[in-house]
Description:
Helices cover 12% and strands 27% of the residues. It is α+β, with helices and mostly antiparallel strands. Strands 1, 2, 3, 4, 5, 6 and 7 form a 7-stranded mixed β-sheet that branches. The radius of gyration is 13 Å and the shape is globular.
Amino acid sequence: MQTDIDPRSLIGRRALDRDGTRIGTVDEVYLDDATGVPEWAAVRTGLFTRDAFVPLEPSELVDDELRVPFKKALIKDAPDFGVGRHLSPEQELQLYHHYGMDVPRSSAEPARHPEGDFGTLAGDE
C-alpha cells in the first residue's frame, strides 16, 4: 500500500476482500513502532461483531475503498485481540502467520495504536 497515506484518511472507508465482497469499515489504523508506517487496520465486520485485523501491505486503496487481497472468511477468522491498545510482537506474529505472510524484519517492535503517548487516535480530530 502507499506509505504516504495519512492513516486518519483510512478511517471510515469500506474494506473489500479479494473478490470484491464487502468485509466492513475501517475502524482503526495501527502504526509500526519503529517506522511510524501504517501496518494494520482494524475492520469492523458488522454492527454487533468484532473488528478483524487486516494487513495494510499488500492491501491497496482503490476508488476510496481498501482492497484486502484475502478471502472474507480468512479475514473474519483472524485472531481477535480487541482494539484500542498496542499489538504485542507475539500478536503480530500470529497475524502474519494467519495470513501466510512473511514476517518483515521491522516487526520485532510491536505495532502501536496511535493513541496515548503518541497523540490522538487515527480518525479523531
